[in-house]
Design a protein that fits this description.
Helix content: over 70%
Organism: Actinoplanes campanulatus
Largest sheet: none
Transmembrane segments: 47-68, 80-99, 137-154, 166-191, 203-230, 250-273
Number of strands: 0
Number of helices: 13
Shape: globular
Low-confidence stretches: 1-14
Keywords: Membrane, Transmembrane, Transmembrane helix
Strand content: under 5%
Order of helices and strands: HHHHHHHHHHHHH
Radius of gyration: 22 Å
Protein name: ABC-2 type transport system permease protein
Pfam family, one: ABC2_membrane_6
Mean pLDDT: 87
Distance between the termini: 47 Å
Length: 286
C-alpha cells in the first residue's frame, strides 16, 4: 500500500512529547477554569488578605520604629512594607493550606480511578495546582499590592535582575508548596485519615515559611538551619526577600538556586511516596 494512502495514523518521534505537553497544558487550563468559577470567594479572600495586610504591616513598622534608626534584621521600613504586601498577594498564589483533595480521594477510594489514568497522579495534581496558582496571580496578587502602595511607601526594585528572579522564585515556591502538600496528603495511604499531618503542615508552613514574620528576625544560626534543612523558607521567605532586595545580587541568585534544589528533591520524594503507596495498594489487593 502506498504510504500516502495509508489510513493508519503513525506517531513521530516527537509526537509523544508534544502530546504530553498538550495534556499537561490542558490540565493547567482546567485547574484555572475550576478556580475561576468561585468569583465571590476570590473577592472575599482578597478583601481578607488586605485587612490582615494592614495589621501585619503596622506591627512590623512598629518594630522598625523601635529599632532606634537601625535596620531590624537588615530591612528598611519600605522593605518591611513590601515584604508584607507582596506576601499578602502571594498567599493565594503559593497556596500554603486548604488542599486536601488527594487525602480525600484516598479515603473515599476514588484514587483508584486516578491510578487508571494515563497521567500519573503527581503530574496531574501538579498541573491543576499550577492552574490554580495562575488564577491567583491574575486575580489576587495585584489588589493587596495596590492597597499597600496607596497607604505605605514600598520599596521599588533597583536591580534589573530582581523582577525576573522574583518570577522564577514564585514559580519554584508554587512547585515546592505543591510537593509538600502532596507528600502530606499522601500519608493517608497509610493513616487513612491525614487530618493530623495536614494540621501540622498548616501550623508549620505559616510560622516557618515566613508568613507571620520575616525569619531573619530569628537568630542567624536558626535561620540558616531552617533554610538549608527544610524547604519551608523557600515557600514565602525567599521570594519576598528577593523582591525586597534584602540581600545582594549573588545571595539573591543563591537563594533561588536553593529553591531549585528543594523543588527537585520534593518532587522526587512525592514520586517515591506515590510508587510505594501504589505497591502497598497492590499488596493489599486494592
Amino acid at each position: 500500500m502506498d504510504q500516502r494512502d495509508a489510513s493508519v495514523p503513525t506517531i513521530s518521534r516527537i509526537g509523544p512529547f508534544r502530546a504530553s505537553i498538550a495534556t499537561f497544558g490542558a490540565l493547567i487550563g482546567s485547574g484555572f477554569r475550576r478556580y475561576a468559577t468561585y468569583r465571590q470567594a476570590t473577592i472575599a479572600g482578597t478583601f481578607t488578605n488586605i485587612v490582615f495586610g494592614f495589621l501585619r504591616c503596622y506591627v512590623l513598622l512598629a518594630v522598625a520604629a523601635t529599632a532606634a534608626g537601625q535596620r531590624p534584621a537588615g530591612y528598611t521600613a519600605e522593605q518591611l512594607a513590601t515584604y508584607v504586601w507582596v506576601g499578602q498577594g502571594l498567599l493565594a498564589v503559593i497556596g500554603l493550606w486548604g488542599w486536601t483533595e488527594l487525602a480525600d480521594r484516598i479515603r473515599s477510594g476514588d484514587i483508584a480511578a486516578d491510578l487508571l489514568r494515563p497521567v500519573p497522579p503527581l503530574a496531574g495534581f501538579l498541573a491543576a495546582d499550577l492552574g490554580r496558582a495562575l488564577h491567583g496571580m491574575l486575580t489576587r496578587f495585584a489588589p493587596p499590592l495596590l492597597a499597600g502602595a496607596v497607604f505605605f511607601p514600598l520599596h521599588t526594585p533597583t536591580r534589573w535582575q530582581t523582577v525576573p528572579l522574583f518570577a522564577v522564585s514564585v514559580v519554584l515556591a508554587v512547585v515546592i508548596s505543591f510537593g509538600c502538600r502532596f507528600v502530606v496528603n499522601a500519608s493517608a495511604y497509610w493513616l487513612q485519615d491525614a487530618r493530623g499531618p495536614i494540621t501540622l503542615w498548616t501550623l508549620s508552613a505559616g510560622v516557618l515559611g515566613g508568613l507571620y514574620f520575616p525569619l531573619r528576625l530569628l537568630p542567624v544560626e536558626l535561620t540558616v538551619a531552617l533554610w538549608v534543612a527544610t524547604p519551608l523558607p523557600s515557600l514565602l521567605q525567599t521570594p519576598l526577600d528577593v523582591i525586597a532586595e534584602r540581600d545582594g545580587p549573588a545571595l539573591q541568585a543563591g537563594l533561588v538556586a536553593l529553591q531549585v534544589v528543594w523543588a527537585v528533591l520534593i518532587l522526587a520524594l512525592g514520586a517515591l511516596v506515590q510508587r510505594r503507596a501504589e505497591r502497598r495498594l497492590v499488596v493489599q489487593g486494592g
